[in-house]
Amino acid sequence: EKLHFLKCFLILETTPPQHQKLFSCNLEESLLAAARKLVENYINRLPVMDREQNTAVYTITPFRILKYLYS
């Protein structure tokens, strides 16, 4: 499963035009859940939202996930 997960980040795919929805995750979601949103929805940046203050706390990218897994 980890190999498939890493392959998804290495494959360059074009973003279909029908994906106009804004995706985000909250502070309580796991990193795996956030990574799945990135892969399944063909997006490169996923804001992590603080729902109480309605602000973006962090932005998750495929590069940052790979950097975290490498360290």
| Helical content band | 25-40%
Structural class call reads alpha+beta
Distance between the termini: 19 Å
Low-pLDDT runs: none
Number of helices: 3
Report the order of strands and helices. Answer: HEHEEH
Alpha-carbon Rg, integer: 13 Å
In one word, what is the shape?
A: globular
Average pLDDT figure: 78
Strand content: 15-25%
Strand order within the widest beta sheet: 1-2-3
Largest sheet: 3 strands, mixed
- Total strands: 3
Topology summary:
Layout: H1 2-10, E1 25-26, H2 31-40, E2 46-50, E3 55-60, H3 62-70
Parallel strand pairs: 1-2
Antiparallel strand pairs: 2-3
Notable characteristics:
71 residues, alpha+beta, three-stranded mixed β-sheet, 39% helix
Quick structural overview:
The protein is an alpha+beta fold and 71 residues long.
Q: How would you characterize this protein structure?
A:
The protein is 39% helix and 18% strand. It has helices at 2-10, 31-40, 62-70, and strands at 25-26, 46-50, 55-60. Strands 1-2-3 form a 3-stranded mixed sheet. Strand 1, helix 2 and strand 2 form a beta-alpha-beta unit. It is globular and about 30 Å long.
